What does this fold into?
Amino acid sequence: MSDLDKFPTSFDDLFGLRGKVALILGGGMGMGQQSSNILAHMGCDVIVADIIPERAVTVAAEVRARGRRAHEAVGDMTDPTTADRVLTEAEAAMGGIDIVVSIIGEAGWFSFLDTTVDEWKKDQRRNLDYFFHCSQWAARSMVRRGVGGAICAIASVDGMQASPMHAAYGVAKAGIISLVKTMALELGGSGIRVNCIAPGSVNTPRANARSSAEINDLRCADMGIPLGRAGTTREIAETVLYLVSDMSRYVTGVCLPMDGGWLSTRLDSKKYTKRPPPEPAKAT
It folds into this structure.
């Protein structure tokens, strides 16, 4: 029988996710909520990790309503001690972790000249450092169990180009992209695939708290983004599904932009900065 005669006959055959346990870091809202639900829909049991208990409980209930097991993992995953406790409890409750989706992250908005050391460290901690710690913890568990696995991080187009007014965030996201490549190389022999997604502008709950989805879409069109709108959290979750499933079983070490064509254009970043450069020193 040739490969042409072996097409999948069901979602289970196509995605290979039924019975897998997925840990969603930041699973209580936005991209995390969507990822938790789409993975549950495709057969995963889900650990919903979130700093706010009510959010974790709500999403866990949504997962159970889809007929899958769920565990609420509540705590600040950017704190290594707390993360160790929460991950240990979650693994014991669910019997292992096969998939990690890392979504936690936030940017501080300051010019390069105004960024303090504390603000710099804060953006590294809440974007890059926790991903290193939690994915290392989960990868060690996967290696011990000998089952392989998949890890998917949310990076950003800001890690692939200049990030004016949020330099620390851009550096942290660039760090994720680099770390993903190294992890893919070192962990591939254990059957662990590691990839990341680099979103552009996305209509997340946090973004829509500042301005509506309609305004964000108009802003993207005005910026010259080819698809003329912001992305959606559902679209990010669908790409997460691809990267952690058997659909991408020969894909690792990849950073996949999901930006509506942002990186393919020459967008004018000058109009998005808030202050001019300092005056040059006068000759004396």
Summary: The longest helix spans residues 117-145.
